[in-house]
Amino acid sequence: MSSQALVVVAHGSHLNPESSTPTYRHADTIRETGVFDEVKTAFWKEEPSFREVLRTVESEEVYVVPLFISEGYFTEQVIPRELRLEAWDVEQWGSDGTSATHTTLRAADTGQRVHYCGPVGTHDAMTDVVVRRAETVTGDPDVGEGFGLAVVGHGTERNENSAKAIQYHADRIAERDRFDEVMAVFMDEDPEVDDVADLFSTPDVVVVPLFVADGFHTQEDIPEDMGLTDDYRTGYDVPAEVEGVRIWYAGAVGTEDLMADVVLERAADAGAEVGDAIERVRERTRVATPSDD
C-alpha cells in the first residue's frame, strides 16, 4: 500500500486556545490506530496554516477532512484556495447543501494527490455523534424514553446550509423513534433556543449544539439564552431546571470523542485504506454502561 496521509483542517481561534483542543484530540485518536502514515492538523486562525500544511506532508496521497459543520464559505472557497487545489470547482461535489462527498485534485505547489472531502458535519455518521452526546451528558447509554432532544444551530442568516445540516440530523434522529421528541432549534431564527423549555412536552430535554468547538456561542450565549444562568461566568447545573423542565446542556458536539469516527469515515469514503479503525474507534469512545451496584 502506498503511503497515505490524513490532514484534519479546522477553524481555530486567536482568542480561545481551547477551540483547537478537540481537533488535536481527534487527530491523536486516529493517529493511534496506525492506519495513516501521517496525521496532521491545520487551522485558519492558528499554526500550522492551511496554506503551509501540505508542505509538511511527505505522502503523495493526502486525505483532507474539514472539521466544519456545514458546506459554505470555508469548505467551498477558503480551504481549496489555501491548499492551492488545481481546477477546484464546488460543482465537483454535486451537492444539494448537505451531500458533499469528495473529489480528487492536484495541489499546485506540491504535486500531491489531494482527496478533498466534504465537512464532517453533514456526514451521516454525525447523527450518531449527536446521539452519543446525549448519552454522555446524561451518563445513560440508553437515554431516550421520557426525553426530548434539541439539536441547536446558528441559523440561516449566516449560511443557509448551516440550518440544512441541523435539520438533516434532527430528522434522522427523529426517524429512529428513540427520543419522545426531536427538534432543530436555532440561535437566530424560529424555533429559537431561548424557548426550548416551552417547545417540548417532555420533563427532560437534552440540548446538543451542532458546533465543532466550545466557544462564545456554546459557552456564553446559549446557556444564558436558555435561562440556565444569568451570567455564564458563574456556571450552571447539568441538569438545570428551567420553567419546570430539566435541561441537560451537552455543549458542542465536536468535543465528543466519537467525532474521530466521522473523520475516519469521511476519509474512507474518499478511498483511504482504514482497515478496522472505524470499529476500533467506535469501541474505544463508547459510553461506559453504568454499573448495577
TrEMBL record:
GO terms for biological process: cobalamin biosynthetic process. GO terms for molecular function: lyase activity; metal ion binding. It comes from the Archaea. Keywords: Cobalamin biosynthesis, Cobalt, Lyase, Metal-binding. This is Sirohydrochlorin cobaltochelatase. It comes from Salinirubellus salinus.
